[in-house]
Design goal:
single chain; mainly alpha; 2 domains; 61% helix; elongated
Length: 143
């Protein structure tokens, strides 16, 4: 049953788009993503495959460039909202990623959460959908 579910999920995935296959609108978005992922925040986890195709949310957004442009702008703005520490921001992302079982988000933000100072056991608990011990009041509210 589990293997059947995995095959079904894999069949529903959008194909990766390699740079030479992109339309002009997709290429503009690809170039914007290329600039964005050069930031230190993206170091330490895969954002492209060996052939240059974006993976994870970037790969999906390339299929829908108009929506992708708007989502990229929203993500950029949300990352710079004042009043939330980086640790709390990672708690929010890991909590939501676990709730909706978003594998890439959990993969990438587990690393970013650790980089922000969350302990390995806290990251693991968040990724499993729990509320870890030792969070600050802000982080507990975020969870």
């Amino acid at each position: 049953m589990e293997e059947s579910r995995r095959r079904e999920e894999m069949a529903m995935r959008l194909p990766l788009l390699h740079p030479e296959e992109l339309t002009p609108a997709q290429r503009d978005l690809y170039d914007a993503f290329d600039t964005m992922v050069k930031a230190d925040e993206y170091a330490g986890f895969e954002v492209r495959d060996a052939d240059g195709a974006f993976v994870g949310p970037w790969g999906v957004m390339l299929h829908f460039p108009e929506l992708g442009q708007a989502l990229a702008r929203f993500i950029d703005l949300a990352q710079r909202l004042p009043g939330l520490s980086e640790r709390a921001r990672q708690v929010v992302i890991l909590t939501i990623g676990a709730r909706f079982d978003v594998a890439y988000e959990l993969y990438a933000h587990a690393r970013l959460g650790a980089r922000a100072g969350l302990r390995p056991d806290q990251v693991a608990t968040l990724c499993a959908g729990g509320r870890p011990s030792g969070l600050t009041e802000e982080e507990a509210l975020a969870a």
